[in-house]
Design a protein that fits this description.
Layout (H helix, E strand, L loop, with lengths): L15 E6 L4 E14 L2 E5 L6 E14 L4 E14 L2 E5 L4 E3 L2 H46 L2
Parallel strand pairs: 1-6
Antiparallel strand pairs: 1-2, 2-3, 2-4, 4-5, 5-6, 5-7
Length: 148
Amino acid sequence: MLHARNHERSPRVKTFVMHLQSPTQYERVENVASFVGEDDSGLFGLLPEHARALTVLGFGLARFRRAGAEWEYLALPGAVLYFVDNALSLSTRRYLYDKDYDRVVDILRREFAAEEEALRGLKESVRQLEEAVLRRLWKMRRHGESGV
């Protein structure tokens, strides 16, 4: 006689996949159970099966947790975040992640901050160049109209 066994099934933890991409790196991170990031509106979290989302993360740290694991910290000099069909895509100039919070924060402060400062200087130079070109065009137009 066959006896039906009561097979206890542990509930399956829902997860999503995260795609980390930069111009020189790509990683697919499986079994992500949650993600926490920050944009201009503040801190937010994503869980599996979240509605479609699109935002821009600022310079700083995000964190994620794989199913049954500890938090991992993600240093970003800003990123475009897109969540759709249970997949999170982060597109950025550069990224680094590690389980060691202090190590990630140190790298964020030293390397990423220096990179951001250099970019700020470059942006300021471009802004000054644009202003100089506009002034020159304005003077040329003014002199052209006055017949000089």
